Each structure stands twice: as structure tokens, then as C-alpha cells.
Please model this.
Amino acid sequence: MTAKVLCVGIATQDQIYAVEAMPDRPDKFRASDLAIIGGGTAATAAFAVARLGGEAMLASRLGDDKTGSDILAELEAERVDCSLLRRYPGHRSPSSAVMVDPQGERLVVCYADRSLPEEASHLPERLPSGVGAVLGDVSWIEGAKRLFAAARSAGVLRLIDGDRVVEDADYFDSATHIAYSAATLRRLTGVEDLAAGLAMLARRAANWLAVTDGPRGTWFTENGAIVREPAPAVAAVDTLGAGDVFHGALALALAEGRPERDGVRFANAAAALKCTRFGGRAGTPSRAEVEAFMRGSG
Model:
């Protein structure tokens, strides 16, 4: 049976420019390539779940503009169930301008309509049938908390993509699993060493914790210790969306019943492969590609 993951949070449209170097002054710069494609933490995770062979659902908020229509059409073309996505008349959909340099590093300027309603009463109180994991980001916490409550009642795991520092302890306490970005963990703890910072959080946490560290892999809690799963070595072309692909792949692996270490290994491989391709989440690999890559790099 195919595992189903419900992602909740932001969906955007990205304009991605390949540049020779990151701009360091006000001026005109030429791009060598351009990709216009959907993005956003939750939406890209859902896209990755679908591309990796799972069933993906997305709960999100968009405006009723052309950008929103393009975002929705692309997700539905990838077989993402968007029945829990709501569009709001008179509002603008999120978008980003992204510059990617030859090393794959990116600079992102995001826009989100702050007047988009936060309330989430339209989301179901009971989890949709078959959902094996709920993945929430930190862009729409009201929506994520409502679906986490439904998941908790159903005994379904709840994973947070902690890519920014937010002040909502109840939300983070309600998760069974949290995977932070390196920058977020350092801001939270004031500790540069990620293993030490994660150990600091783990001492007062009841949930499974992890932190992604790009090409250096992922640190996570296991049997009372902090351990690391290395990332496969690749020549990075574009890191945009790699963390979102990681979280989608991890949520899918956990929904399939895999142990956390196996899930991290699978997610590391999916994110690494994505980094070898320009175009944001367009570079998300298929399940067959990830499995072949893991056999070859293992």
C-alpha cells in the first residue's frame, strides 16, 4: 500500500536565476539561465512525496491571482491532492526571486501577503483517510496545529520542518519529530557546534530531533545519543529546495514505517540528488533514481 503524507504550509512560485557570482552592489547583472517553477517548504515537500512515489496532500493558502493558478496547476500535474488548499479573493499568492551561483548556493527574496487569513477552521477535525504522516512548516502554524491535533487523535506521526525560529512552544511540543536547519538550531541555542546544540535541545525534549547540515549530512537523536548520517558526496549545482525535498522524503519514509536512521539516509540521498540539478524543485528525483543512487553510493 502506498504511504500518504499530508503537508501543511506555504506554496510559492519561484523565479530562479543562474548567476556567475552573487551580486555585491546595486547594479544590473545578467543571468545565464532561468527557471520559473513552484516552491515553498510545504508545497515542495508535497511535490517530493509525489515524485518519490508516495501519495501527497497539501493544505495551504493562495490568492486568486494568476500566480496562484500557476502554482496549483503545477502541483496537480504532479498528482498532489490540493483539496485542502484554499484560495482567497483579493489576495496575492506568495512568490520568490532566487539567485543561484556556480557552487549551487542561493540568495532568496520572498514575498508573502501578510493579510492572508491565518485562521484554519475550514480544515478537517479528523485526519483524511490513509494519512500516515503530517508534515508542517512554520509559515502557517494555525493550519499545522489543527492538522497535528487531528493526527495526534489518530495516532499518526507529526513532523515539523524547523527552517526558521518561531515562538510557539506548544506547536513544537505537539510534534513527534522535528528536523531543524543548521541556521535555526544555531539561533535557538547560541551554540555553533550542531551536535552539541542538538544535545542541548534533546535534554528537555520528548520528541525525536534532527538537524540538517547540507553536504555534511544530518545529526539526529538515537537511543539517547546524538549520531550523524553522512550525506552522499555530489557536485552541487543548485541547493534551492534541497531541505524541503529532505523533509518530504523523510516524512514519506517514516509514513512507510522505516526506522528514523533509514529515513534520514533516504532523505539525504534524495536531497543530494536534487542539488545536482538546476531549477529548484524541478530537480527532485524519482524513487527509482534515489534507490539506484543509494546502491551506487553505498
